[in-house]
């Protein structure tokens, strides 16, 4: 009897997942509703990896709809389950999405915490250690968005302790130069540092958007000071 219940729940969950995939192109709301039903059934029968996979699909649908708050919520759920199943790479991908979207909606401390955590867990992993400087750059850019120069410089010291190779990277140089430009309230210096980095390693849309936010804040400060003099 237990087997029958398990089998039928498994079949029902698969049926909901199939229905969701039919709805995906025409009705996102229905697709999400079906995937949630599937997830709940897979959780009931202990199929955590399937649940994680469908949580991630729900998150992707919310991302398509530009509903970042909900996307964050479901990527977090997916990350937790992938982590519990030791699927570290996919868990990290989901966590990165949480961090990126958190920064987009100006929840910088949350984004910083996640990027730093991924960097910490990756630094001694032969497969993941090459991504560490990218995670630290992302965390550093979020620090710049907060605009606290002391916090930025403290973070840079921490990052160099976390990964001794970081101080020799172009990512570290960029963050140091940008922190100095913010400290000196020098928009031209800020722009030059970004251009120099971008000429060698193209900045992606997410990093560019955040750096533009920092630059606009810096410009506003410069204008304020001009008005006062």
TrEMBL record:
Gene3D superfamilies according to UniProt? Tetratricopeptide repeat domain
Query: Which Gene Ontology terms cover its molecular function?
Result: soluble NSF attachment protein activity; syntaxin binding
Q: GO CC annotation: what is one?
A: SNARE complex
Q: Which ranges does the UniProt record give for the TPR repeats?
A: 52-85
Per the entry, what this protein does is: Required for vesicular transport between the endoplasmic reticulum and the Golgi apparatus.
Question: Which Gene Ontology terms describe the biological processes this protein takes part in?
Answer: intracellular protein transport; SNARE complex disassembly
Give the membrane topology, semicolon-separated if more than one.
Answer: Peripheral membrane protein
> Which organism's genome codes for this protein?
Nicotiana tabacum
Q: Which family does it belong to?
A: Belongs to the SNAP family.
> Where this protein primarily resides, as one coarse class?
membrane
Its protein name is Alpha-soluble NSF attachment protein-like
Task: Output the InterPro entries linked to this UniProt entry.
Answer: NSF_attach (IPR000744), TPR-like_helical_dom_sf (IPR011990), TPR_rpt (IPR019734)
Q: Which PANTHER family match?
A: ALPHA-SOLUBLE NSF ATTACHMENT PROTEIN, SOLUBLE NSF ATTACHMENT PROTEIN SNAP
Kindly state which keywords UniProt assigns to this record, in alphabetical order: Coiled coil, ER-Golgi transport, Membrane, Protein transport, TPR repeat, Transport
Compartments annotated for it: namely:
Membrane
Coiled coil regions in record? 51-78
Q: What's the encoding gene here?
A: LOC107795501
- N-terminal signal peptide: none
């Amino acid at each position: 009897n237990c087997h029958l219940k398990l089998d039928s729940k498994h079949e029902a969950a698969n049926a909901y997942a199939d229905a969701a995939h039919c709805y995906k192109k025409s009705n996102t709301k229905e697709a999400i509703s079906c995937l949630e039903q599937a997830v709940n059934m897979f959780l009931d029968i202990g199929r955590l990896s399937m649940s994680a996979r469908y949580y991630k699909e729900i998150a992707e649908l919310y991302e398509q709809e530009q509903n970042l708050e909900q996307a964050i919520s479901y990527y977090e759920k997916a990350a937790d389950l992938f982590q519990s199943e030791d699927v570290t790479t996919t868990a990290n991908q989901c966590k990165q999405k949480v961090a990126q979207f958190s920064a987009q909606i100006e929840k910088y401390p949350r984004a910083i915490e996640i990027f730093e955590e991924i960097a910490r867990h990756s630094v001694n992993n032969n497969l993941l250690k090459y991504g560490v400087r990218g995670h630290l750059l992302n965390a550093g850019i979020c620090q710049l968005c907060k605009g606290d120069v002391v916090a930025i410089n403290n973070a840079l010291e921490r990052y160099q302790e976390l990964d001794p190779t970081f101080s020799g990277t172009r990512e570290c140089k960029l963050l140091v130069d940008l922190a100095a430009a913010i400290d000196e309230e020098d928009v031209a210096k800020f722009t030059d540092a970004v251009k120099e980095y971008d000429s060698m390693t193209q900045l992606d849309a997410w990093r560019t958007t955040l750096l533009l936010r920092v630059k606009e804040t810096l410009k506003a400060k410069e204008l304020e000071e001009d008005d006062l003099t």
